[in-house]
Design goal:
- Helix 2 crosses helix 13, helix 7 runs antiparallel to helix 14 and helix 8 runs antiparallel to helix 14.
- This protein has one domain: P-loop containing nucleotide triphosphate hydrolases (Rossmann fold, 3-Layer(aba) Sandwich).
- The protein has 14 helices and 8 strands.
- It is an alpha/beta fold and 301 residues long.
- It is 50% helix and 17% strand.
- The chain has an 8-stranded mixed sheet, sandwiched between helices.
- It binds adenosine-5'-triphosphate and magnesium ion.
């Protein structure tokens, strides 16, 4: 505990120094936001609803006028672009190869929402040499001044690529369903976060439930095991009910937020956006010490 407190103080004192440096480094063309809150959405098991939740949460934040960037760091089947029904012509790999600038690959969804298509570039991060990695991270850091929220949609599991994004984050949203294997895998992921980044703020979203009671029971069970064996603080955030309109909207390649604007899932996503924007007492995110992308670069080194 003392170690954690010391580390926190150290991080806080680095915070003011670093934010001054990054303000100077920001392009003059960028809006002068302070650094974005970066929220990494992840899960132990695949197919639990991360991409749907991230895309629709991004739309809900944008609807409130919050400048949001969605970084698609998922190489799964139902990618951000598929769910949004857009086809990016270029990916992060094109930026890495020097064929495109970061500005050129950004997909503008509306006035407040832009997508960074990750594509295979996410895998390539691990193979970049030091100067190339640092060059790319410098560019990605500009995103932190371009938006208030950066949502990162990751793939599932604890492969190195995914884990690095999770471990670089101050805020992690862990998605699970009530399925026992999903809960077990969520625990495995939280254990990895506990080992490498115990100060992260980890919140649970229980997806595809029949009722709020079921969600609370699942969250309680998981938090009980976490409290028993790990040091990390994990909290229950909210839930999403099982909703056949979500699969329908995926088939239509339209986010449910747009396809079913008055449906129960849109209502829940709006509530999730409220919880993100106005955290309940005692759940404020830690001030970020260094840039998310700087921490990410260190992990890929
Ligand atoms: N609340 C829900 N109710 C019903 N179906 C849902 C719900 N959430 C997600 N789904 C369905 O589950 C499937 C997987 O969703 P999604 O692609 O968002 O998961 P994922 O966690 O991002 O998967 P991956 O690990 O492959 O990236 C989709 O077909 C989607 O329609
Ligand atoms: Mg996905």
């Amino acid at each position: 505990m003392t170690d954690q407190a010391n580390r926190l103080r150290e991080l806080m004192s680095q915070h003011s120094a670093n934010s001054a440096v990054s303000r100077v480094a920001a392009s003059p063309l960028m809006p002068s936001h302070s650094e974005a809150r970066v929220i990494v959405v992840t899960s132990g098991k695949g197919g639990v609803g991360k991409t749907n939740i991230t895309v629709n949460l991004a739309l809900a934040l944008a609807k409130r006028g919050k400048k949001t960037i969605l970084l698609d760091a998922d190489l799964g089947m139902a990618n951000v672009d598929v769910i949004l029904g857009v086809s990016p012509k270029a990916h992060l790999a094109d930026v890495i190869a020097g064929r495109k600038t970061l500005e050129e690959i950004l997909l503008r969804v509306n006035d407040c929402l832009e997508i960074v298509p990750g594509g295979s570039g996410i895998h390539e991060l691990a193979d970049l040499d030091q100067p190339a990695l640092e060059g790319l991270i410098r560019k990605l850091r500009e995103l932190e001044h371009r938006a208030e929220y950066i949502l990162v949609d990751t793939g599932a599991g604890i492969s190195r690529g995914v884990l690095n994004f999770v471990l670089a984050a101050n805020e992690v949203l862990v998605v699970t369903t009530p399925e026992p294997t999903a809960i077990t895998d969520a625990y495995g992921l939280i254990k990895a976060i506990d080992q490498h980044n115990p100060l992260a703020r980890v919140q649970l979203l229980i997806n595809m439930v029949e009722s709020e009671q079921e969600a609370r029971a699942v969250a309680q069970k998981l938090i009980m095991i976490v409290d028993r064996f790990l040091d990390i603080d994990v909290r229950y955030l909210t839930y999403m009910e099982k909703d056949p309109n979500i699969s329908r909207s995926v088939l239509q390649q339209q986010p449910f937020y747009q396809a079913f604007p008055y449906g129960p899932s849109t209502r829940r996503i709006n509530m999730l956006a409220s919880l993100v924007v106005e955290p309940e007492d005692g759940q404020e995110p830690l001030p970020s010490s260094t840039s998310f992308f700087t921490r990410l670069a260190k992990l890929f080194r």
